[in-house]
Amino acid sequence: MQFSENWLRSLVDTDLDSQALSHALTMAGLEVEEMQPVAAAFSKVVVAKILSAEKHPDADRLQVCKVDVGLAEPLQIVCGAANARAGLMAPCAMVGAELPGISIKQAKVRGVESFGMMCSSKELGISAEATGLLELDNDAVVGQDIREYLDLNDHLFTLKLTPNRSDCLSLTGIARDVAAITGAPTRFNAIVPVVAEHANSKNVQVNESVVCPRYCGRLITGVNTAATTPAWMVKRLERSGLRSISVVVDITNYVLLELGQPMHAFDAAKLHGDISVRFANAGESIALLNDQTIELKADDLVIADSNGALALAGVMGGKPSSVDDATTDIFLESAFFTPAVIAGKARRLGFSTDSSYRFERGVDFGNTRNALEYATALIKTLCGGQVGPVTEVMSALPARDAVKLRMSRLISVLGISLTQEKVAQLLTQLGFEFSSAAEVFTVVPPSYRFDINIEEDLIEEVARLHGYDHIPALAPVASLNMLAAPEQRLHLNQLRDSLVSVGYQEVVTYSFVDESWERDLIGNPAPIKLKNPIASNLSVMRTSLWGGLLDVLTYNLNRKQERAYLFEIGAVYQQQAGAYQETTRVSGLAYGSAKPEQWAASNTEIDFFDVKAHVDSLIGADGLHKQVTYEKAEHCALHPGQSAKVMLNGKAIGWLGKLHPKWQQHYDLAKSTYVFELDVDAIVARALPAYQEVSKLLPVRRDLAIVLDETVAVQAVLSAIKAENIALIADVALFDLYQGKGVPENKKSLALSVLMHDTQKTLTDSDADTAIANLLQLLQIKFDAVLRN
Fold this sequence. Notes:
Elements: E1 2-4, H1 5-9, H2 18-27, E2 31-37, E3 45-55, E4 63-68, E5 75-79, E6 89-94, E7 98-99, E8 102-103, E9 107-109, E10 112-114, E11 116-118, H3 146-149, E12 155-160, H4 171-182, E13 204-206, E14 214-221, H5 231-238, H6 247-259, E15 263-267, E16 275-279, E17 285-287, E18 293-295, E19 301-305, E20 308-312, E21 316-317, E22 330-336, H7 339-342, H8 345-349, H9 354-359, H10 368-383, E23 386-394, E24 403-406, H11 407-414, H12 420-429, E25 433-437, E26 440-444, H13 455-466, H14 492-500, E27 505-506, E28 512-513, H15 515-521, E29 540-541, H16 546-557, E30 564-576, E31 579-591, H17 608-619, E32 628-632, E33 638-648, E34 651-659, H18 661-666, E35 673-679, H19 680-684, E36 700-709, H20 714-724, E37 729-738, E38 747-756, H21 765-783, E39 786-787
Parallel strand pairs: 13-16, 27-30
Antiparallel strand pairs: 1-12, 2-12, 3-4, 3-6, 4-5, 6-11, 7-8, 9-10, 14-22, 14-23, 15-22, 16-19, 17-18, 19-20, 20-21, 24-26, 25-26, 28-29, 30-31, 31-35, 32-33, 33-34, 34-35, 36-38, 36-39, 37-38
């Protein structure tokens, strides 16, 4: 919102200077984005009249002028402007004047003395280009300071308004806020209804009263639309960023800027029948004022006559019914449209208008008729004409529900002590109607404040008028008590440390992923789709972290990083029985050599068992009662011969395996890629530590080789031994597997190390033999295993 400071000061009488006014507005929530002078600084430039202009004796394009600047004698000035002529009123910079980039001195021009310089708007810094002297009105006072005459001691303010402050999209709204901030009195123009001079009118039918609850219009005949817009109005329009078009359009724009009410004038001779406010019909189109013809949609509200749409309501008028220099009769409208029906319409069409910008944020519906009366008075004054009666159609206007403000809540939120009398004063300055009882204010927002709906809105109003800079910045006070650290749960940082210790690097990827990842890589045919994705390739929620890790791997390989150990701890999202479920998982990816390149070790690639060791270390980080096993299973993303479900205490908690060859080819991976993914909640849970006596005596180790069917899983053997809890046997581990010569076909040989000890005595050979015999008996019964010869 751009406006002239002088225009604002004509509506509110404040003693603040420009800088102080800018600061006050910003601190009250109306941020002044820019403040710049209308013209550059200059001095000793006055209104002058050229008395005579004679050709220079030695130059064809120069004239020697006698110029009246209000002194006792005229000045002689040599001028090269093409429009310099006797009788012209123009600015004159006298000797000693300082213009932007120019110092005026007495000089000789081609042998003729010159005592000043006649000025163009460019030389005064008012415009970037000029074709001649700046021509002034004949009624200008000779000798008057040009800055005063042209009102150049002015500033252009540009406010960066938040969308909720639609009331400040007008000079009246800004003046109202300045008055509330500073306590200065307002000087609003009194709006007096114009008396009708004839009985002619247009019938108006509002078919959509919900979205257009108030519509006013009147017929004005005998209007001189070719009249010149007065300079004061042109100046205010231009300093607000609008160009002068024609007197009637300028008046509607002027009312828009001063009161915030968009208006439109139709050429009454181009209207057919009654006026109606309705939604567009199927296949209907309209030619707009910007020369754009659009096909209307069913939700487009239009102003229409019997022949069709005349204007796109709240956005832009139609060209066929527009006012031009030949217009003599106009139908002037002022209406209120609900923000919801206007919002987004202009943006959909690829442009924005001052009207739509205001209507979609909320216009003062209590001022609709006043704006019509104000515009009518201006038209009658500047263009003449005879005024008809106002046609007004009104239904249920938006309700202004009372909002309660509790003093206790106000003090609690702001953290400062305010008296009830002070709050009442601030609400009064805002022009709010209210009542109070038992330290509770009941406030009825005015029709121009669409942003006052809840208690917090009123708290904000009190805070900004009291002054944010008057609210002390207190250091926060908080207790720094140590938080309880639950012993039965690992911290996520412990999982991170476990993976970092074996060379992994943590990455963070989007929770939004490409739908093809879910459908093809993860085998999820119905992922959770986003209603408004930020990109077409981020359209669904992930159910696995693998897609993101593979994407990061590809990114690194493209940058010549040939070894990548990556992990991520993040959320995945699933939909079950119509409800959304979020769980946290830790996922890892390993690619390239098993160890960083070095002279002391061969450059062997990582394999399945290397990654399995990483998973074992991750799950068993605490070493307390976690039974980790792996079951052969197939996953669409994994190699069918190298994939397994990870089991923890008999429950599936994730996957481990080698990437399927088709995905290795899809991602153009030259080497094997191994991935794992585990449920975090399962692996961070742990049992409380329990004391167990450590033997002070030496253990006894026996190595056994047993032969059994090759289909028997080693893990099943180890689990059975542990479950039996054979006396004296502390641990059993596999250290070799053999198939070949000396072992029957379809059989395999397992070499087991058996560790035995007793905390009370040294074991004898007889004790060890008994334990081994019990172990072999168990293996023979459960797995038909025999001791290898």
